Amino acid sequence: MKFRPRFRADPVGFQVAPMLDVVFQLLAFFLLTSVYSAWENEISIAIPTAQTGTAPHRLEGEIIINVVKDGSVVVNGRTLDDPAFASLLKRLAALWPGQPVIIRADKATAYEHVIHVLDLCRKADIWNISFATGIPEST
Description:
By secondary structure, this protein is an alpha/beta fold.
């Protein structure tokens, strides 16, 4: 009796096409998430506009401090009270002298709240401070 040998397929080698698909998917994911994570803006804040306002040149490691209408301070998506905010600023100044800080205050925020944030920055010896403004819409 003669038995036929079963079909023997050659072993499949490394598949390049599926690997490229996965790499491109990962690349697209990380590019999109890096764009959105670059700005830690509080969405509910409407910053004032200035005629000399320009698109900001982001510095590496800068901290964005959002001051909401009611005077509360939001950093990295967390609302901080005064002692927690002051300790954060002191740790930043101790670890990285010259740490750049951007203050984004809502245009309806009282002036005293912005000055209070500036005072806490000064007490923590943070001097590299800038204010966020928007570019006016041309009509």
